[in-house]
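Page 42, continued from yesterday. The earlier attempt failed because a stray header line got pasted into the input along with the sequence. Redoing it now with the clean sequence only.
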Amino acid sequence: MEFSNLVNEANAALKRKKIQEAIKLFDDALKLNPKSIEVCSKLGSLSFQVGDLDNSINYFKKTSLLDPKSSLAYSNLGIIYSKLNNQDLALENYLKACEIDPKNFIVNYNLANHYFSNNDDKNAEKYYQLSIELNPQHFYPYNNLFQLYDRSNNLEKLEKIFNNISKLFGRSPQVQFLEGTLQFKKKNYKETIKIFKSLKLNKNDYQKSVLIANILAKCHDYVGSYQDAYNYYSLSNKIIESTFKNKFNKNEFNDRVSKRLRSITNVKKELFINTEIYDERSDPVFLIGFPRSGTTLLDTILRTHKSIEVIEEKLLVEDLMNQLNHYIYNDLINLNSMNNNIIKKLRDLYFKKREDVVDFKNNSIVVDKLPLNIIYTAELNKIFPKAKFIFALRNPYDSVLSCFMQPFLPSNAMSNFYNLKDASNFYDLIMNLWDKYQQNLNLNLKTIKYEDVVNNFDTSIKGLLKFLDVEWTNDLRNFHLTASKRGIINTPSYNQVNKPLYKESISRWKNYSDKFSDIDLKLERWVKKFNY
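This time it went through. C-alpha cells are written below.
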C-alpha cells in the first residue's frame, strides 16, 4: 500500500477510535517515508495517549531531529518527562521549546504548568500571564492562575484575576465555581452556599464535585449547621470512595502496619542501639504524627527560624523504604542483620535525594515533615541513629474528625478516612504501632501537643527549639507572615497556614459528638493515655 493510502487508512481508524490500529498503520507509513514529520509527530501523540511513553519519547525525539524548529515536539517531550517525574529533563525540553518559538501559546502554557506543579510560583505566574497575552480568549491560563493565587493565599491577586475572568467569560458554570471558591476564601459562607447549591456542573467532573461538597460542608460547619456539614463531608468522601474503589484499598496499607506491629513486638530494645558514626552528615529531624495533628502548624513555625529548613511532604522516606525492602523484606526483625555498608548506601541514597528537592544552607537543621512517616520509625532509627523525632499530637477525637473532613488525595492510606469508624480504627492501629516503637526503640523524641502550641505558644515552642539546639527568636510569634511569603503550598491545610493562632479547631469534635457514639471506646483509650 502506498504511503498516502496508509496515512488515510490510519486517519480513518482514528475516526473509528481504533487507536492501536491507527498506530500500526502510521508505523507502516513511516517505514515507507521515514522523513515524514507529520506521521512521526502523530505517532508520538498516539503512543502517549495509550501510555507507551518510551515509544512516545522516541517518536518526538525523531520529530525534533527531522524538524529542529518543532517547538511542539520539545514541549511534548517536556510533558512526557514530567509524567515520568524527570523534572530536570522536562524543564530542559520546555525551555528549548520556548527558545524556538517564544510566542507560541501552547508552549508557554505547558511551561507555566510545569512551574506550577514544581512550586515555582513566580515563573508559573510569569508564563501564565504571557499565555494570556498570546491568547486572551483561552480560559485555562486564567483558571490556573486563579488556582495558583488560591494555593498561595494571595487574596488580592485572586480577586483581580477573578474580575478579569468574569468580564471575559460571563456566568458559565466554570466561572461560578471560581466565584464560590473566592467567596469561601473571603469567609462569605452564606454566599458560598448559595452559589454552590445552585451550580450545575458536569456530574463526571470528579474533582469539582468533591471540592464543592467539601466547601459546602466547611461553610455549614462555620455557620453552625453541623448536621448539614456532616452530610456534605460524607458526600465528599463518598464521591472519592466510589471513584477510586477499584484502585485503592485501605486493607493493603493497614495489613502492612499490622505486620510491623507484630514484628516490633518481638524486637528487643537493645538490638536497635547504634552508636556508629557513618559519615559527617547530620542526621535529619523527622516531623511525624497522625494526619491532621498539627504538623503543618509546626512546619510553618519552624521554617520561620533562619537556622531551620523544612522539607514539606516529599516522598524521600518512602523512596528510601522501597530500597530498604530489598534487604529486610518488609520484616523489621531483619533490621538487626543489616551491615554498615548497606546502611551507608541507604544514607547516601536519602541525602542525595534530599539535595535534589531542597537547597538548604550549610549547618542548617533540616526537618523532613510527612506525618505518616511515623510507621517507618524503626527503620529511620536504624539508618539514622542520631535522628531526632518530633511527634505532633492532638486530641484523638479532633484528629480523627479533621481527617474525615479533609478530601485527601486518594491512596491506600487515605482510604481510611471516608467515615469516622474507619478513621478511628486507623488511629488506633497507628498509635498501637507508635506505642510499641516507644517501648522498643531508643528514640531521641520530643512530643508537641497542638493544644499547647495554641494555648501556650512561647513555652511550647521554646521547649521544641531547645530540643533542636537552636535559640528562640521573637519573629517566631509572627510565623503566619512567613507563611504568606511561601508561594504555592502543597499541604492539605494550605488555607490555614497563613493564619495567626486560633482556637476554633480545639474540641471541634464536640459539635459532632453524636457521630462518635458507637466508637467512643476505641478513642477513649488514647484520650486517657495522652492525658486529654
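Notes: The chain has a mean pLDDT of 91.
Reminder to self: strip header lines before submitting.
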